[in-house]
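User: Hi! I have a protein structure encoded as tokens and I'd like to know what sequence might fold into it. I'm fairly new to this, so please keep things simple.
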């Protein structure tokens, strides 16, 4: 028998190529098992197809890929009852790097054009060589279905390989990996089972792990997303959803469809019914799983934009070209079309569900802040997203949309007004709202961190400009209905320049306003630049430079301002000016410039009032 052993050199610069496969092509050593199982599943599918056309014996009943770890011998054996290989095919497919029998077979099927051709995974002919990441020697024994001879291919992954006659009772292939000392973790059945569950859980060929003579299923074997919707129960959807993302709730929405046309793919996506324990605000990438022909490839394909990262699920395609490692996706038009189609499908679902206000409110309270990010960063979908936004309001209970706000706008009102801050409760009590409430003008109350950013990008809705009420001078005099501030206004023409002079280092302007009712003062931002909430965020982040000084607005109808106006005729108001600025800061949720001094001043004034 030894004389029949033939030694061959690989049909490529194997030294460099195998080193690339082992050390650079794959980022995770466990990928070797995915590649070998994928090849075995392909071989079974190929035999099943050829049996239909009379080109091979039928696949035996109970066909499965068997994985047999042997700690004592330090080997892992993968056995399949697939199509097998002849001597010539072993030399051609295993002896030439980047030569793939699967790929050649797929090309021949495409040329023949059979409508029911099988789904085959291998494309590039290098997956097999990933075995050398964990094996110091690889032996392949194979017998072609319909043939009588078996042959053994063996190599240590250097410059050559051997081919020798062998024995195998049935058609198929056995691959024996002689495991490296630093890869003994892969001899543990539980480790192998975990890898199969991660990468090959849904391929249709059963994968069994053999331990102590007993066989245990390692994969589920059912790709739920490839079934017709009519054949999947709500319980099955919920079970898969919980398994997929380790969730404990039921999904708020389930999207299951097959896309056909310019690109074909199956998709099963879920929108969770509750916030995950891991905040979605902290993770910026979408983790929808990409499968190719049921085989998991990656969850880092960016199949959805970051502002839909709360969506979980699977997209499975047969059309997507991959590079040789299957871990780094090419930027192909096919992938771009899949991304666009999946994103539009999720947006369509949200539009439909948004028609039920109570149902949509549950979603919005969980993921509204994330969806708002899309208004800031995605010009293509900004208009669609604007219609999906929901807000608290100074005028109505619960959540309201921009469209509903516009329908309630007062006669003469030209803009959509909003106020940003820390919490809706604090905003509802803000003195910034006094003049708007007095005139019956609604203001949207925004309290998410992203609310300081997106309104600038959106700019308008239904041709109505969106405006922060803390930015610039807001003129409400032209709005019909309601009443503005009541009472006689004091003459503040002398007081204003004195306050400006006293506060020249701390404010950009001091001016009278008619948008206050009960409060004496309020702060505003300059006409150009960030509003007050954005300025506070910038200052907390240590980036307050360039934000500009605030504007101090005074209410000439307030008793305090009236008394200061009278004092301005005869004496200075420098100390009172600082008190007014601190008072305005406290009303907006900021600390006074000198908290201790401000507290003493308030205590003294209170004591004087009691006297």
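Assistant: Happy to help. Inverse folding works backwards from shape to sequence: for each of the 611 positions I chose a residue that suits the local structure. Here it is:
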């Amino acid at each position: 028998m030894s004389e029949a052993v033939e030694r061959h050199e690989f049909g490529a610069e194997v030294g460099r190529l195998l080193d690339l496969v082992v050390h650079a092509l794959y980022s995770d050593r466990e990928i070797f098992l995915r590649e070998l199982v994928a090849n075995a599943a392909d071989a079974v599918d190929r035999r099943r197809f050829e049996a239909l056309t009379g080109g091979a014996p039928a696949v035996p009943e109970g066909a499965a890929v068997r994985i047999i770890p042997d700690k004592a011998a330090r080997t892992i054996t993968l056995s399949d009852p697939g199509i097998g290989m002849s001597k010539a095919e072993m030399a051609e497919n295993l002896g030439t790097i980047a030569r793939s029998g699967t790929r050649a077979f797929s090309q021949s099927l495409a040329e023949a054009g059979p409508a029911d051709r099988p789904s085959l995974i291998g494309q590039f002919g290098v997956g097999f060589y990933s075995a050398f990441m964990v094996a110091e020697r690889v032996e392949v024994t194979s017998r072609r279905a319909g043939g009588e001879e078996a042959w053994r291919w063996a190599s240590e992954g250097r410059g050559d390989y051997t081919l020798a006659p062998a024995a195998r009772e049935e058609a198929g292939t056995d691959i024996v990996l002689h495991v490296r000392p630093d890869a003994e973790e892969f001899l543990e059945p539980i480790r192998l089972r975990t890898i199969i569950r991660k990468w090959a859980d849904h391929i249709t060929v059963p994968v069994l792990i053999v331990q102590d003579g007993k066989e245990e299923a390692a994969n589920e074997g059912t790709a739920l997303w490839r079934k017709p919707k009519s054949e999947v129960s709500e319980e099955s959807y919920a079970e898969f959803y919980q398994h997929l993302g380790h969730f404990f709730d039921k999904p708020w929405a389930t999207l299951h469809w097959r896309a056909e046309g310019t690109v074909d793919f199956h998709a099963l996506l879920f929108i969770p019914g509750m916030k995950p324990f891991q905040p979605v605000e902290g993770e910026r990438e979408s983790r929808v799983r990409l499968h190719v022909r049921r085989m998991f490839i990656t969850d880092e394909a960016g199949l959805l934009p970051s502002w839909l990262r709360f969506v979980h699920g699977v997209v499975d395609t047969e059309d997507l070209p991959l590079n040789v490692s299957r871990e780094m996706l090419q930027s192909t038009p096919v992938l771009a079309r899949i991304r666009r189609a999946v994103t539009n499908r999720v947006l369509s679902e949200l539009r439909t569900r948004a028609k039920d206000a109570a149902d949509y409110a549950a979603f919005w309270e969980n993921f509204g802040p994330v969806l708002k990010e899309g208004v800031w960063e995605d010009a293509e979908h900004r208009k669609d997203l604007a219609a999906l936004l929901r807000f608290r309001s100074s005028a109505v209970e619960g959540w309201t949309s921009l469209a509903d706000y516009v329908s309630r706008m007062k006669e003469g009102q030209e803009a959509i007004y909003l106020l940003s801050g820390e919490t809706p409760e604090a905003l509802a009590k803000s003195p910034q709202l006094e003049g708007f409430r007095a005139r019956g003008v609604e203001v949207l109350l925004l309290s998410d961190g992203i609310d300081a950013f997106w309104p600038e990008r959106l700019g308008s809705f239904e041709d109505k400009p969106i405006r922060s009420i803390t930015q610039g001078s807001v003129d409400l005099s032209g709005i019909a209905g309601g009443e503005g501030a009541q009472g006689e206004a004091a003459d503040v023409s002398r007081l204003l320049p004195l306050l400006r002079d006293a506060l020249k280092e701390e404010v950009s302007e001091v001016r009278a306003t008619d948008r206050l009712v009960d409060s004496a003062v309020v702060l505003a931002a300059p006409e150009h630049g960030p509003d007050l909430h954005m300025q506070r965020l910038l200052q907390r982040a240590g980036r307050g430079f360039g934000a500009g000084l605030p504007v101090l607005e005074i209410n000439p109808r307030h008793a305090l301002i009236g008394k200061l106006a009278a004092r301005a005729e005869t004496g200075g108001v420098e100390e009172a000016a600082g008190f007014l600025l601190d008072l305005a800061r406290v009303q907006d949720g900021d600390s006074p410039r000198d908290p201790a001094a401000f507290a003493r001043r308030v205590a003294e004034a209170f004591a004087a009032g009691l006297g």
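A useful reference point when you look it over: The longest helix spans residues 31-52. Feel free to ask if any position seems puzzling.
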